[in-house]
Amino acid sequence: MKTSSISTLGSLKQRTVRLTLSLPVQATLYTSLCVLTLWTIYFSTYPAAHNQMHSLRHHTLMVGCH
């Protein structure tokens, strides 16, 4: 009985690792990280980041910040 539960857990772990390391999941995570980074850079209200990116915001894709 213990052997079957251990093999079931091992199988579940292998499926989880295979899914996590699959190319579509990695591509989705990478794209999400890039989008989050760009969103943070362009729309940050933190004064230091806002001041550094101010002119870039106005000259890129007509993104306003005011």
TrEMBL record:
It comes from the Bacteria. Keywords: Membrane, Transmembrane, Transmembrane helix. This is Cobalt transporter subunit (CbtB). The chain crosses the membrane at residues 21-43.
